[in-house]
Amino acid sequence: MIGLLLIYFIGKSFYQLAFDYDKNVWAFAILGVIFYYGGTFIGGFILGIIGAFLGSNFVETIPKIMLSLISMPFGLLVCWGSYKLLENQWDKKKTANNNDSLDSNLTGKI
Fold first, then answer.
1. For residue 103, is it within any domain?
2. Which are the contacts of 83, defined by CB distance < 8 A and separation ≥ 6?
3. How many beta carbons lie within 10 A of that of residue 65, not counting itself?
4. pLDDT tens per residue across span 31-71
5. Minimal CB count within 10 Å: which of 11, 21, 28, 55?
6. Domain region containing 62
7. Euclidean distance between CA atoms 23 and 30, whole angstroms
């Protein structure tokens, strides 16, 4: 149940971000969910690598729900980072476009 809520809120935040910057809203909502699952996959992979190097088999012995709860912060971190990256990149482009239109208005060009 918590996974569905996370998917909803992640998709909604990426949807709103894309809407604010006039991008394809559904594509970026789905991309946000993909970022989350990619981050949890990478987190689980890192945990497995660490377990292999330590010679422990804790990944095989813990319940699957515990493994998903442990890898959840990795997915949220990847989502947050990609959200901020997109927001900053689109904000720079929007500011540059606004500055170009102001410059053209000041010089008399259309």
1. no
2. 13, 14, 17, 32
3. 8
4. 999 999 999 999 989 988 988 888 877 778 888 888 888 88
5. 55
6. 27-98
7. 13
